[in-house]
Amino acid sequence: MNRTDFAKVKRVVVKIGSSLLTKGGQGLDKVAIAAWVEQMAGLRQQSIDVILVSSGSVAEGMCRLGMKVRPKTLHELQAAASVGQMGLVRVFDDNFQRHRLHAAQVLLTHDDLSDRQRYLNARSTLLTLLKFGVVPVINENDAVATEEIRFGDNDTLAALVANLVEADLLIILTDQQGLFTGDPGLHPDAKLISEISVNDDRLDVMAGDSRSGLGRGGMCTKVRAARLASRSGAATVIAAGAVDNVIASVISGADLGTYLLPDIEPLVARKRWLAGQLQVKGQLVLDAGAVRMLQNEGKSLLAVGVKSASGRFERGELVSCVDESGLEIARGLINYGNVDAQLIAGKNSSEFENILGYFDDSELIHRDNLVII
Ligand SMILES: Nc1ncnc2c1ncn2[C@@H]1O[C@H](COP(=O)(O)OP(=O)(O)O)[C@@H](O)[C@H]1O
Ligand SMILES: N[C@@H](CCC(=O)OP(=O)(O)O)C(=O)O
């Protein structure tokens, strides 16, 4: 994907770091936040799904509670985060409302994404919010996250969210122009990198830690986030939040910040990620026609070509597709749970509404969510 292809993206995760949001710790930068929200509203007008991952709860809480340095104990951090999150939510809600958009607060912990059932719940909630045109505003649930279950930095959280919703692009806004050959604060002659593959080993030498005392990760976690995001095919751009119209400019393909290339076709990456990530929960037996459609024509799987469904699975879970002799043909994320899948097996999609009382998707498994074995 070239930068010019960003104009075609359908779903974007925008991550904004603490130091940007809080003017280096002096309290929420309402002018800058209004400008970012206006740009995100612009994306919504182009029907691009937007998910915001916002840091700043600890930094804003510190400011509100008059703390001069980041607290050392977990309980103080948790307390500061709960106070600061109120400010974040209020300012984002006010700004999105101004553009007649709804925002939704979603606070996640590591467990929510590592536990299969909770992962699927989080995924369904986010996809449903996007379907309603809402902008989810995500942060770590710092008030309850203990050291063992913390993401710790929101770069990682943003990348996992990009995986979760299968975003095309992750934009990480920070206090630097992008990734430099070294930390510009320590190496004044460091050069901005415009484009680099996530697989380039030099990244590990160039990216350093945070020194602001507000953010957590520095560039290390941003590079790691780009690598994580690439596993589901998402491209990553690290850019300066202070640049005018930064989000819109990135989407328009401007040579801005650092583009971390996933270096693999999005669809291939997504399918590889799919195949590696999930446990098989059930089995569909396909008739010969459906097998041909999947193997030779690259089509989606329709219920009409399914002879039977077994196992216990929910919408969005991974099932195995076998031919009538039991040979595995494909794996994919199914659009219906096992009870409904059994009812509509062998049926035309025009009959779904009558049989189920509702109609979600005409395909049982969309071809983008299918991996041929
Ligand atoms: N190679 C690098 N290029 C740019 N910044 C770097 C680099 N290595 C380390 N950094 C540091 O990373 C910081 C940005 O990360 P961080 O403080 O976590 O910000 P944020 O709050 O936006 O996540 C920069 O201010 C800089 O000090
Ligand atoms: N959940 C924390 C995130 C801290 C964090 O990762 O900050 P940053 O490195 O600025 O993205 C908060 O809101 O303060």
TrEMBL record:
Keywords: Amino-acid biosynthesis, ATP-binding, Cytoplasm, Kinase, Nucleotide-binding, Proline biosynthesis, Transferase. InterPro entries: AceGlu_kinase-like_sf, Asp/Glu/Uridylate_kinase, G5K_ProB, Glu/AcGlu_kinase, Glu_5kinase, Glu_5kinase/COase_Synthase, Glutamate_5-kinase_CS, PUA. Pathway: Amino-acid biosynthesis; L-proline biosynthesis; L-glutamate 5-semialdehyde from L-glutamate: step 1/2. It catalyses: L-glutamate + ATP = L-glutamyl 5-phosphate + ADP. One of its GO terms (molecular function) is RNA binding. Residues 282-365 form the PUA domain. This is Glutamate 5-kinase. The lineage of its organism: Bacteria, Pseudomonadati, Pseudomonadota, Gammaproteobacteria, Methylococcales.
